[in-house]
Amino acid sequence: MRPEISPSRLMARLRDLGGIGALDGGGVCRLALTDADRTGRDWLVAQMKDLGLSVSVDAIGNIWGVRAGIDEGPPVLIGSHIDSVATGGIYDGALGVIAGLEVMSALNAAGARTARPVAVAAFTNEEGARFAPDMMGSGVHQGALDLEDMLATRATDGDGVVGDELDRIGYRGTAEPFTPSAYLEYHIEQGPVLERDGIRIGAVTGVQGIHWTEFTVTGQSNHAGTTPMALRRDAGQVALRIALAADRIAAENGPPQVATVGVFELSPGLVNVVPQRARLTVDLRNTDGDVLNAATGRLIAEAEELARAAGCEVSHRPLARFAPVAFDPAIVARIEQVAHARQLSVRRMPSGAGHDAQMFAPNCPTAMIFIPSAGGLSHNIKEFSEEEDVVAGAQVLLDVLCELAGVQA
Ligand code: HGY
Ligand code: MN
Ligand code: MN
To answer: 295 C-alpha vs ligand 2 centroid, how far in Å?
Structure first.
């Protein structure tokens, strides 16, 4: 019997997980290592055990569920994340983990055996919204990030340290890292391309580079009424000019360069006080690593000049530095062929968002499957994908997985 996706089972799990950390107006808040994340983790572990998977947790809190194969050896891995941003949707990350569970259910229901073991994983702190950098769990697992450094990482708002939080929620484990025989990730596009082009499936060719930088500007607080403009050391004005410099660099580089100022804090933050301190983050991304490196270097140089000219100091620290990666051409081609075989329109495309897959791509054959995001929205509680697309993407995932794992139904 050929393994088949059960739409009702798939959607039921997506809704169940979407109810954990649910926000009143819709969407979810499951920031990494919070109580909501723990509840989601507990739910996932229970699902994995119900499926008869061998469940383990590693030193950075990644959760693994393995289905034995006929042969021993590294599994074919389906992965993503269940942590979210503070105003997240129910699809970002969760879809890939839920689809991994569905693949296991489909294999079990068909009584299928696979030559290779098959595994599903949920990686710690993919979002980087509470603890930077993003892709923390997959980055540690694949050697791109240092475990001890990550365990010592303090939240960007100062509230909590990764290692302590892992202990607090009971998810610091001992499972050993390994390199899978192949890695597949199914994810919503989180952008406008597939919907704009009326395409059902994205065969993702790679992920663009990501640079996150935090700037801290120090000036002098002073009276807003008595201090002449020429005598001010206004940290807020310098921060604003750094933000505008980021925007100008993106405009001058042109697409696919993007720049985002996501955090912008002034202190003391009072209407009649010249800001003494400002903290801002700048997220720069580009598919071309050299252009991205040059953009970051230029932004830092301009920030230093802007601070000097205003009699302020500026410090900066990298929160994330990930180079662009390319996915495995053979698996990308199989995703296209499988989609065609299922009469699904498909196109190749790069990923604008970061994903755990970019940590695996340098080490094993890796690829991603996208489905459309309604209105191109994500990291937004209105994030939505049509059920027929959710199911179609899961079917493509199952078909490619069955080939890579050598299914024997
Ligand atoms: O930032 C990203 O692209 C991902 O959502 N962590
Ligand atoms: Mn994601
Ligand atoms: Mn995300």
So the answer is: 25
Q: State which residues form the domain around 68.
A: 7-207+325-408
**CA distance from start to end of the chain:** 6
383-397 per-position pLDDT tens digit: 999 999 999 999 999
Pocket of ligand 1 (CB under 6 A): 126-128, 134, 353-354
For the segment 87-101, the average pLDDT, to the nearest whole number, is 98
Same domain, 145 and 228: no
95 alpha carbon to ligand 3 midpoint, in Å?
11
Compute the distance between CA of residue 167 and CA of residue 170 in angstroms, rounded to an integer: 5
Q: Is the pTM of this model over 0.85?
A: yes
Residues 77/119, Cβ–Cβ less than 8 Å: yes
Q: How much of the chain, in percent, has pLDDT values that exceed 90?
A: 98
Which residue, judged by its Cα, is nearest atom 1 of ligand 1?
354
Q: Is residue 218 part of a domain?
A: yes
Which of these three, 304, 322, 340, is where a domain ends? 322
Mean pLDDT along residues 21-37: 97
In the chain, how many domains are there?
2
Structural domain includes residue 104: yes
- For the segment 252-280, the average pLDDT, to the nearest whole number, is 98
pLDDT of 409 over the 70 cut:
no
> Does 216 lie in the same domain as 365?
no
Residues by chain with Cβ below 5 Å of ion ligand 3: 92
Nearest atom in ligand 1 to the alpha carbon of residue 129 is: 6
- The DSSP code sequence of 179-223 is --SEEEEEEE--SSHHHHHT-SEEEEEEE-EEEEEEEEEE---EE
What is the tens place of the pLDDT at every residue in 179-205? 999 999 999 999 999 999 999 999 999
Evaluate whether residue 2 is within a structural domain.
no
Do strands 76-80 and 118-122 pair parallel, antiparallel, or not at all (unpaired)? parallel
Do 244 and 154 reside in the same domain of the chain? no
Q: What is the CATH number of the domain that holds 197?
A: 3.40.630.10
The pLDDT of residue 2: 87
Interacting residues of 322 by C-beta distance below 8 A, sequence separation 6+:
133, 135, 144, 207, 209, 210, 211, 354, 358
